[in-house]
Amino acid sequence: MRLRSLICTAALSAMLLPGQGLDMKSLTLFNQPKDLWPTYNGDYSGRRYSALDQISQSTVDLLKIDWMYRITSVGPQRGVGGPTIKSTPLLVNGILYFTIPDHIFAINARTGEHLWQYSFDDKGGHLVGQRGVGMYRDWLYFESPDGWFISLNAKDGKERWRKKIADEKLQYFTTMAPLIVKDHVIIGVGGDAMDVRGYLESRDPETGELQWRWYTTPDKMGDPGSETWPNLDAMHHGGGMTWMPGTYDPDLNLIYWGTGNANPVFAGQSRRGSNLYTASIVALNPDTGKLVWYFQASPHDTHDWDNVETPVLFDAAINGQPRKLLGQGTRAGWFFVLDRTNGKNLVSKPFSGSGNWAKGVDAKGQPIPDPAKEPQPNGSMIDMPAMGATNWPPPSYSPKTELFYLNGTEGYGVAYLYDTSDKPEGYGGGGGGNFDSHSALFAMDIRTGAIRWKHQHGQDGSTGISGGILTTAGNLLFTGDSGQLVAFDPASGKPLWNQRLTQPVSNGPSTWMLDGKQYLIVGAGDTLYGLSLARPSAR
Amino acid sequence: MPRSSFRLVLFLSIAALAFAQEDMPPASGGRGGRGGRGGRGGPAATRDFLGLGAAPDEAAAKKGEPLYQQNCAGCHGANARGAQGPNLVRSALVLHDEKAETIGPVIKSGRPQSGMPAYPNFSADDLYNLAQFLHLQVDLAANRGTYGATYAAVRNQPVGDPKKGEEYFNGTGGCKSCHSISGDLAKIGAKFPQAATMQSRFLWPATPGPAKARITTGGETIAATIRTLNDFDLSFTDATGNYHYARRADVKIEYDDKLAGHRALLPKYSDADMHNLTAYLVTLK
Lengths: 539, 285
Fold this sequence. Notes:
The complex is a heterodimer. By secondary structure, chain A is mainly beta. Chain A has helices at 2-16, 232-236, and strands spanning 49-50, 63-70, 90-92, 95-100, 103-108, 114-119, 134-136, 139-143, 148-153, 159-164, 179-181, 184-188, 199-203, 210-215, 247-249, 254-258, 280-284, 291-296, 312-318, 321-329, 334-339, 345-350, 358-361, 367-369, 380-382, 396-398, 403-417, 429-445, 451-456, 470-472, 476-481, 484-488, 495-500, 510-514, 517-524, 527-533. A 5-stranded mixed beta sheet of chain A has the order 1-30-31-32-33, with no helix packed on it. In chain A, strands 25, 26, 27, 28 and 29 form a 5-stranded antiparallel beta sheet that branches. In chain A, strands 2-36-35-34 form a 4-stranded antiparallel beta sheet, with no helix packed on it. Among the domains of chain B are: 58-142, Cytochrome Bc1 Complex, Chain D, domain 2 (Orthogonal Bundle); 162-207 and 260-281; 212-254, SH3 type barrels, CATH 2.30.30. In chain B, α3 packs across α7 and α10 (162-170) crosses α14 (271-281). The radius of gyration of chain B is 27 Å and the shape is elongated.
C-alpha cells in the first residue's frame, strides 16, 4: 500500500513536473521542435514560420479562444499607460514565459493558469516595451528598463544574480529579449535621447560576466569605419542602439543584428559622413564579437530610422542556385535581400513611398541619402509617414510562398531641424505629419523586391502597426488588423478568419503543439490569448 | 483589401487600432502635423516617459546662469556643450547629480591635474544654483517636450518667398480653383501665424470629428455619420440619430472627397513650393 502510493507519487511527479530546463540542442536555424518556442523568434532564423498545419485554411473556421490570461496585478506604467504585451512568450516544457516592462509571468500553456510573477522596481529608463526573456537550461534572462541584466530560476522566478549593463542616467534603456547562442547570452541596449554610444554584449550564462562588448561605432580614429565620422567626439556620441534581438546561423557561426539610428537624431551637421555602423545590418562572430561584414541601410540617418527590424534568415534558389539569404524590411522604407555569407546585396527596393530621401543606391546596394532631404527648419517632405515605414513588430517569411511579409505604413511626413548650431544634442529636430497615411500588410517578392500583394487596412489615417506576423504550413498568415486577430491567405492577402479581442494585437503571434493540439498564442494589450481548434481532430 | 472608390478621412477608432510607436510617448490622439517625435506630450509627460527624474529647479537655474557665464562658460561653452573644456551636458558626473552633491565638490576643489581651477568661495546655494543651471541644459537637450518652447522662433519663421508662394497658389498649385484669399482663406495667416502649423494645415487639412458618408445597404441609401469603420465593421447614425450596424462587406460607402486636391499635391510639392506657399499664406492677415 505504502509502496504503491510512493510509486504513484513518483509517476505523478514525472507527469506533472517534468524538468523545467531547456535542451539547448532544440535551438536551431529552421527546424524547431513542435512542442517548443524556445527563443524570441521561435528559431534562430527569425522567419516566424511554423511547420504546424493542424490549424489550416480548411480548419481555421474552428479556431476559438481556449484561455485568456489578463494582467491584473500591474496598473498603468510610467509614461506609457496600461500594461502592453509586446514580448513573444517562450514555450518550454508546457510553460509560457512572457514579459511587460519590469515584470515576468510564467503560466501554464495549456490552461493559462498563473504559476509565478517576477516584479522589478526600476529607477529609471523607458517603459516603452519589453520583448521577452531568453532561456538557457534552467535559467531565464531578462533586461530591466534601467539597465540591469537579471538571471532567474525558470522554476519559480527567483533571481539568482543581476549585472549592470547600461547606465540609465545617461539615458540608456533596456528592453530587448536576450538571444542565447551556445554559451553566450547576447544582449543589446536602447536610448537616443542623450547621444550615447550603442553596443552589443555577450555574457556568460552561468555567471553573467562579460565575454565581449562590441560598440556600434569605431573605437578610435584610424579604425575601419572611423573615416565616416568627422571626429572622435561625434563617433563616441553617435548612437546606433541594439534594442531588438538578432538572428543566428549556426553553420556560418554568425549573428546578425540591426543597429539603430545615429545621434544627434535629426541634426546631422555635427556628424558629417555615413556614420558607420549605425542604421546597419551587421554580422558578428558570436565567440569574439568581431565584425565580419556590414550593410548600411540608412547611411547618415537624420530621420530616426532605427534599422533594428529583424534580419530574417532564409534559404532560397536564385537563378537556380541555392542561396543562404537575409531579408530586412526597414523603418527607412526599403526592402533588402543580402547573401548572408558575405553581405553582398541582391535586392534594394523601397516598399513605402518612392524612397525620395535617397538619390539611388551605391555599388554595395546601399541607399545614397540626398542632402537636400535632410531635416530643414521649415521642413523637408519625405514620402512616408513621419514615424517611418515600419518598426519592431516581427515580420515573417514563408518558404511555401517565398514571400516576405511585414506590417508597414504609407503616406507623407515632414522632417524638421530645430537646432541649427554646430553642437546639436539629443534629437535636435523632429518629424511631423501622417499626411494621407494608412497602414498596410505587405507581401514582398524576395527575388525582385516587388510588392506581390498589399492589404491596406480599411481605416484612412491609421499609422499604427497592428502587431507582428506569423506564417504557417497550414497556409495561414496571422496578424492584427482593425483591432482584431486576422488570418490571411499568405498567397493572395485575402482575409479568411477574424476574431475580436479586447485590445488590438500588440505582439508577434506564435504557435506550437502540445498533446496533439496546435495552439496559437497572441498578446493584445494587457491580455495573452491561447487559441486552438474546437475539434483538433477535424482535418 | 481592395480600396473601393471611396476615400474617407476618419479619426474614429484610430486610437484603438494604433499602439504607440517605439521610443516616443503615446500620442494624445492628436495627429496631422504638430509635434511628432518632438515631444507632443509636453515637458512633464515627456520627462516622465524618458525617466529623466526630477525636473530642474528653474528658479535656481536662473540664479545660476550668471555665475556659470562668468566663471564656467569660458572653458565649457555658453550652453555647457563644451569648448576647450569638456561638454557638461553629456557628462556622466552631471547626469548622476541631483542637487550639487557630486557637482559641488568638483567645483569647489577644481581639477588641478586637468587645469580646472578651484572655486572655494562658492556658497552651497551658489553650487546648487550652478548645478540646476546644468540640469536645465540637460533637460533642453534630452527632453523633447521642451523643444516646442526652445525652438519656437525657428519653427515660426517662414524661410520661403511669399511672392513665389502667391504665384504657386494662383498657378501651378491650382489652389485658387477651390480656395479664395478673400473668402474661405481670409485672415488665415492670423489663425495660423506659425510657419510649421500653417504648413501642416495646408499639407493635410484633416479635421477631427465624425465623417459624413452615404451608405447603401439593401438597396437603400442613407446619409450617415460614421462611428466605426474598419475592414470588418461599419456602424453609423442616420439623420434622425438612430444607430445602425452593418458588416463592412455588405455595404457600399461613398462620400465627397474634400481632400482630393490636397492629396493630389502631396507627391508634387518640392520643398521650396511648400516653403513658399507657407510664407505666402502667413501674410494673409
